[in-house]
Amino acid sequence: MSLQQFPILLGVNIDHVATLRNARGVSYPDPVTAAALAEQAGADGITIHLREDRRHIHDRDVELLAHTLQTRMNLEMAITDEMLAIAAKVKPAYSCLVPEKRAELTTEGGLDVAGQLARVTDAVASLASHGTIASLFIDADKKQIDAAKASGAQVIELHTGHYAEQTTEAGQQQTLQQLRDAADYAHGLGLQVNAGHGLHYHNSAAIAAILPLVELNIGHAIIARAVLVGLDQAVRDMKQLLQQARMQAIAELN
Ligand SMILES: CC(=O)[C@@H](O)[C@H](O)COP(=O)(O)O
Ligand SMILES: NCC(=O)COP(=O)(O)O
């Protein structure tokens, strides 16, 4: 088995380029430019989160990126009429449905698909009606995975935040095993399994080694490193790190 059979893809989330821009209400750094640089450096896709409060990515960014991206857009959004209408206009390749609370610093948990199955099913169908593939951002929970499958979604993104927050080896290993089990279970149901949130240069290798995972969406850590070494290098570093971890995992299979 080669890397070609089990590639690990990197979706670069550029939200926090916009955070820096918005800090002074100026036009720079432009997320559109950042996306182009990230793609040139090897990003397999660009993720942007158009939040209801527009704290970072703005509607202008989404509209321009829809015309300029060379890879593909993964538009993260809440399940609201406003966001579904924007998705219908922009027609991103993917839309990742996420929970949102205005008061949160960042996304705190996975989408409760099981508790609102009809609403999620309708959103998945609405996105599919204009060719957008829905991805559901959920916790590593079999009940949520079963509900995701029942909603008609083809893709899930496992929330790795709980794993990323662990401060002990035991906690890391426990949450890592939960992610492994969830990835295996979802893959067994025929879902494409992605993962993301809180991943950085010291905790991503273990996630990349989970073979059923297809894509990791990583943002804050890459943009943070880019502030110091530049975006091209930050993306290349992460891409290389993930690929090495994946190759090692494949080698250990044989
Ligand atoms: C859903 C997720 O984990 C992130 O992609 C999300 O974008 C986090 O929100 P902020 O980017 O606002 O931190
Ligand atoms: N869905 C996760 C994502 O896009 C990036 O999350 P983070 O790396 O900024 O925490």
UniProtKB/TrEMBL annotation:
Give the transmembrane region(s).
none
Q: Could you tell me where this protein is found in the cell? A: Cytoplasm
- Tell me the pathway: Cofactor biosynthesis; pyridoxine 5'-phosphate biosynthesis; pyridoxine 5'-phosphate from D-erythrose 4-phosphate: step 5/5
| Gene Ontology cellular-component terms listed | cytosol
The UniProt entry lists the main location of this chain as cytoplasm
Active-site positions on this chain: H49, E76, H197
According to its UniProt record, this protein's enzyme class is transferase
**Origin superkingdom:** Bacteria
Query: What residues bind 3-amino-2-oxopropyl phosphate, as annotated?
Result: N13, R24, G198, G219, H220
EC number(s) on file: 2.6.99.2
Which residues are annotated as site, described as Transition state stabilizer?
E157
GO MF terms held by the record: pyridoxine 5'-phosphate synthase activity
Q: Among the record's GO biological process terms, what is one?
A: pyridoxine biosynthetic process
Recorded catalytic reaction(s): these are: 3-amino-2-oxopropyl phosphate + 1-deoxy-D-xylulose 5-phosphate = pyridoxine 5'-phosphate + phosphate + 2 H2O + H(+)
Which parts of the sequence bind 1-deoxy-D-xylulose 5-phosphate? Answer: D15, H16, R51, H56, T106
Q: Which keywords appear in this protein's UniProt record, sorted alphabetically?
A: Cytoplasm, Pyridoxine biosynthesis, Transferase
Q: What does this protein do?
A: Catalyzes the complicated ring closure reaction between the two acyclic compounds 1-deoxy-D-xylulose-5-phosphate (DXP) and 3-amino-2-oxopropyl phosphate (1-amino-acetone-3-phosphate or AAP) to form pyridoxine 5'-phosphate (PNP) and inorganic phosphate.
Q: How does the record describe its quaternary structure?
A: Homooctamer; tetramer of dimers.
Please report which protein family the annotation says this sequence is part of: Belongs to the PNP synthase family.
Q: Under what name is this protein listed? A: Pyridoxine 5'-phosphate synthase
Species in which this protein is naturally found: Pseudidiomarina maritima
